[in-house]
Design goal:
Organism: Thomasclavelia ramosa DSM 1402
Number of strands: 16
Shape: globular
Strand order of the largest sheet: 4-3-2-7-14-15-1-16
Pfam families: DUF362 (PF04015), Fer4_7 (PF12838)
Structural class: alpha/beta
CATH superfamily of the largest domain: LarA, N-terminal domain
Helix content: 25-40%
CATH architecture of the largest domain: 3-Layer(aba) Sandwich
CATH class of the largest domain: Alpha Beta
Keywords: 4Fe-4S, Iron, Iron-sulfur, Metal-binding
Radius of gyration: 20 Å
Function: Ferredoxins are iron-sulfur proteins that transfer electrons in a wide variety of metabolic reactions.
Largest sheet: 8 strands, mixed
GO molecular function, one term: metal ion binding
CATH topology of the largest domain: Rossmann fold
Length: about 375
């Protein structure tokens, strides 16, 4: 007998304003979606956002995070905005640079009304090992402050992505909450390698390695993959960014791992998910630049189900016309799928399919418009 899963409720409103401005409208949407069903009283509440790479202007304005944080505080919660450090070189690789970037983009206490915490610490190595016994991940490595929180709220900028097809709730939670070692595990089937031309032989990687996996010969470091356990700590301490992840995982496997990491973040505690389908750039906010949006702004979406939320947002984007002269318009509509048209090597459905398979949500949803 076939088991029919109940449809998840996804709430939606457009971006038109009248009696309410946009932050007020976001709060109204959250209320209608059941936000107050969560007991926030004296609970540490992590609002997981992407602060935006310096130079990128497509990231969510901090005004939206303030609306969420104010609502949490109104309900008695202890809110903070948070993200984890990046695996790659850029303005968010360590907590100091990351905070500089976040503050510059408005994610500071003066703008949001709450503190900004880099969840995996100074060098991306503050993590909690979370057993999930998944098909691809047995133990997820999640930023410590994320795991210390009592409640998780994902505030997502829904946009395209060159590896996963799009970035939404699952990407924000799965990849975004992974520590440096966690991100490496998702991106890589192997272990880190040393780019010899950048290495100065300083020995920092040797000091941090607990398994004697690194050595220096002729003033250049190398990694013994028979001893290396893939923790990624050497990546964090290298002053010249000479140690990098292999980045050799197939995109579908990357998506499966993101779904399993999302499970590690959301299991066993209250979670709520919000996606703003605005400024839908073709690629991730991790880029230090952004191209023009590929479709017109759609609206705000909210749900207790991250899989249904991503599915609803993807469907909404695919119903939109391409903006003239955008990358979507230039690439054409050969696949009848905006994300695949922009990034043909991706398969965004694989992440949602796996998320449904492992029980973190359903792709079947009821869209409820709030006016």
């Amino acid at each position: 007998m076939e088991v029919i899963m109940e449809k998840a409720k996804v709430y939606y409103c457009d971006m038109h304003t009248g009696r309410m401005n946009l932050p007020e409208k976001l709060k109204f949407l959250m209320k209608k979606a059941g936000f107050e069903e969560i007991d926030f009283k004296n609970k540490y509440t992590a609002i997981k956002v992407h602060f935006g790479e310096p130079g990128n202007l497509a990231f969510l304005r901090p005004n939206y995070a303030k609306a969420v944080a104010d609502y949490v505080k109104e309900l008695g919660g202890k809110a903070f905005v948070t993200d984890c450090n990046t695996l790659y070189v850029g303005g968010r690789k360590n907590a100091l640079d990351h905070l500089d970037s976040a503050y510059s983009n408005g994610y500071n206490p003066f703008q949001t009304g709450v503190h900004t915490i880099i969840a995996d610490g100074l060098k991306g190595t503050d993590e909690e090992i979370v057993p999930i016994n998944g098909e691809y991940v047995k133990e997820a490595k999640i930023g410590q402050a994320i795991m210390d929180a009592d409640i998780i709220i994902s505030l997502n900028h829904f946009k395209g992505h060159e590896l996963t097809g799009f970035g939404g709730a699952l990407k924000n939670l799965g990849m975004g909450c992974g520590s440096r070692a966690g991100k490496m595990e998702m991106h890589s089937a192997g272990k880190p390698v040393v780019e010899q031309d950048k290495c100065i032989g300083c020995g920092q990687c040797i000091k941090i390695c607990a398994h004697n996996g690194t050595s220096i010969t002729d003033h250049k470091a190398s990694i013994d993959h028979d001893k290396c356990v893939g923790c990624g700590r050497c990546i964090g301490v290298c002053p010249k960014d000479a140690i990098v992840a292999s980045m050799d995982e197939a995109n579908d496997i990357l998506n499966y791992k993101i779904a399993e990491y999302t499970k590690a973040v959301v299991q066993d505690r209250p979670c709520f998910h919000i996606s703003l389908v605005i400024d839908v750039s073709p690629y991730c906010d991790c880029h230090s630049e952004n191209d023009i949006a590929i479709v017109p702004d759609v609206g705000m979406f909210a749900s207790f189900d991250p899989v249904a939320l991503d599915m609803a947002c993807a469907d909404a984007v695919n119903k939109q016309p391409a903006i003239a002269n955008s990358l979507l318009d230039k690439h054409g509509h050969h696949h009848h799928d905006h994300f695949t048209d922009v990034s043909p090597e991706t398969n965004w459905k694989s992440c949602l399919e796996h998320g449904e398979k492992i029980g973190i949500g359903t792709r079947e949803y009821e869209l409820i418009e709030i006016k």
